[in-house]
Amino acid sequence: MDFDSAQRLTEILLALAFLQQSLEHLSAARDEQRLFALRIVLSLLLLFGVQSQWATVGLVILSLPILHRFQGPYNGGSDRMGLLILICLCLSHFAPNQSWKDIALGYLALQLVLSYLISGWVKIVNPDWRSGRALSDVFQFSAYPVSENLRSIARQPRLVLAASWAVMLFEIAFPATLLHPVTLIAGLSVAGLFHLANAVLFGLNRFFWVWLAAYPSILWLQHRVFASIQF
Length: 231
Description:
InterPro entries: HTTM-like, HTTM_dom. By secondary structure, the chain is mostly helical. It has helices at residues 3-23, 30-47, 52-69, 77-94, 98-124, 127-131, 133-141, 148-151, 157-173, 181-202, 205-226. The protein has one domain (3-226). It contains 11 helices and no strands. It is globular, with a radius of gyration of 19 Å. 29% of the residues are buried.
């Protein structure tokens, strides 16, 4: 994937993520409605490629009153990742030359890799994750809207243990997927399905759309860095 394609695809996916998030706020208080109505307009400009570079500037500026309104990224990791993608995307438009543009998009790709690697490391050093207890507690006691049928998974220790280790090992091994386009596509497919499962099972739909928006950057980086390496 070349730079321009990765940049444009990132714009489209991020715009869709922001639209999905913003629609949730249209039934909120009036001041909140105004903020997110403007965000919808800017996201539509970004989605359809109308003055995309200035749409990213507008979205960056708009993020400041939104952060102030909620005293920070109120949805945690998904909002932080969305802001990171937005800033890197904005820099990729306004950087003074192609080298700096590459750095902006490459930094986003690196952060995506680290998001999986660090998440896996934090889990694997935690004895509750290694024993399966942490994941069991997610199903059994979580405040997320897990159905009663899914809560019964907590009573299947072997399944929970296997799932825990599958998640940890995949996240730890994710950086290795960069070594070849096929392994990267496979890795991103598994990661995407993981986020989709979290969206379906726990309602964490923001993570699915936002993390998906970072995938073009790593596809570009893999091609940029590893294309000339023969295996």
